[in-house]
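Exercise 7. Given the encoded structure of a 457-residue chain, write a plausible sequence.
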């Protein structure tokens, strides 16, 4: 009972977060930057911030995460980090030779008012950025937003690399949002199957789910190349998956370079995947390929075969807005009952969207943006659920309340597989369903009396 002090009685808290349902903005910026081929993320702040961000990503992806830091000392904290930044840019291009340095700020450098665009200009003027190499930046103080907004800001900076030539490239930009490397692979597979030429950015497949080859590569083979990022301004359109993670970059390309954009939900579950495939089909002007139709049919088959175990099961969810919106729609579509939903990321639109998706359920869903896991736990104590879905930190609630628990989201620190098995698309839907059914049936096997202990479920 690690959370035994969580009281049932809910009191309003304005200035206190307990067990946050989010993490630092820079972690999102760092993850996004790793989706550029040959990119070294750079943390403009103290070494401690960078160490924390790297270790969180390393623990989730089980891969070494390379990133550099401006290594603020007391002096730079008082007088500004410009000298450290310029020295860092020089050192990094000389020693590690990346194609791109993706700089994100931290609480400290933002609080003292460091001006990254001005530092970048100085680095250019002083010849510290070699010809054909790039420095991009995102403002990511962690006293605002969350890892999701940090991710979005860095993706928008990538869009800033677009350099239109005036000649269309016949491709569609696909911005996948913060999904796993395996999800990015799956999105590319679906896009190829429909026959759409695309530029996916960022793309961490082949970066954070690579093989053990015995050979260390500072910059793995995967990632969106600089040439591709520059070409995004010549694309015929953009599909942005997830309002929170991807819309800013898509809107930028639309506004700055007249690349029209469509904002879709992340393709988790049946309906959101249907909309994604439909958008691709329309772009390509083709019918849905049989292979994709088959995968959809398999997902529908599993849903109908197992419906009795899913029907009316009450679910609590914690995670990031884009994922939660798609997951809520999926759960409702398979007759499960989401009852408590919390994200740590701010945004009024979140609650509104969840209310829309759950309006026909016949009860009021508890939903909170900028909420925390403490509140979720209190809600569960007051109105118990049959299943909890969330990141690793949910395991404390699951243990205390003796709940079946599906790990899904970021971070997952105590299980494996999320890098390798997608949960997007129809195949991903099968995996999600398998995970949900697995914990529900394990619970049934544990709790059923011997007279009902069935071999075949
Ligand atoms: S919250 Fe701020 S100070 Fe703490 S690790 Fe994140 S960026 Fe650094």
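Solution.
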């Amino acid at each position: 009972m690690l959370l035994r002090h969580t009281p049932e009685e809910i009191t309003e808290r304005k200035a206190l977060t307990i067990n946050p349902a989010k993490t630092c903005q820079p972690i999102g910026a760092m993850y996004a930057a790793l989706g550029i081929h040959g990119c070294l993320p750079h943390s403009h702040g103290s070494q401690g911030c960078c160490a924390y961000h790297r270790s969180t990503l390393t623990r989730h992806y089980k891969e070494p995460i390379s990133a550099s830091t401006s290594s603020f000392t007391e002096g730079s904290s008082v007088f500004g980090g410009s000298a450290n930044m310029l020295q860092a840019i020089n050192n990094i291009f000389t020693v590690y030779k990346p194609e791109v340095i993706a700089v994100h700020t931290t609480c400290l450098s933002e609080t003292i008012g460091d001006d990254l665009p001005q530092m970048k200009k100085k680095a250019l003027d002083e010849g510290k950025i070699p010809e054909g190499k790039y420095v991009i930046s995102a403002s990511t103080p962690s006293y605002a937003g969350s890892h999701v907004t940090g991710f979005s800001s860095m993706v928008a900076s990538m869009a800033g690399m677009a350099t239109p030539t005036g000649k269309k490239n016949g491709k569609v930009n696909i911005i996948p949002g913060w999904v796993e490397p395996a999800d990015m692979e799956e999105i590319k597979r679906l896009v190829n199957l429909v026959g759409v030429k695309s530029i996916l950015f960022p793309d961490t497949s082949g970066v954070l789910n690579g093989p053990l080859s015995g050979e260390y590569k500072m910059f793995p083979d995967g990632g969106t190349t600089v040439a591709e990022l520059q070409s995004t301004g010549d694309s015929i359109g953009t599909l942005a998956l997830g309002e929170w993670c991807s819309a800013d970059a898509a809107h930028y390309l639309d506004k700055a370079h007249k690349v029209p954009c469509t904002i879709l939900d992340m393709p988790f579950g049946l309906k959101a995947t249907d909309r994604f495939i439909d958008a691709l089909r329309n772009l390509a002007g083709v019918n849905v390929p049989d292979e994709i139709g088959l995968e959809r049919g398999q997902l529908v088959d599993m849903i109908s075969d197992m419906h009795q175990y899913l029907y009316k099961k009450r679910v609590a969810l914690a995670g990031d807005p884009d994922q939660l919106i798609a997951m809520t729609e999926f759960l409702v579509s398979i007759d499960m009952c989401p009852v408590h939903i919390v994200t740590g990321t701010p945004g009024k639109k979140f609650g509104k969207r969840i209310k829309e998706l759950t309006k026909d359920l016949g009860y009021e869903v508890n939903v909170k943006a900028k909420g925390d896991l403490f509140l979720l736990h209190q809600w569960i104590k007051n109105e118990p659920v049959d299943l909890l879905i969330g990141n690793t930190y949910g395991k404390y609630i699951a243990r205390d309340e003796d709940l079946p628990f599906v790990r899904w989201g970021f971070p997952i620190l105590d299980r494996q597989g999320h890098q390798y098995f997608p949960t997007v698309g129809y195949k991903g839907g099968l995996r999600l369903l398998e995970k949900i059914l697995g914990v529900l049936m394990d619970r049934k096997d544990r709790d059923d009396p011997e007279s009902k202990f069935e071999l075949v479920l």
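Remark. The longest strand covers residues 337-343. Students should compare their own answers with the one above.
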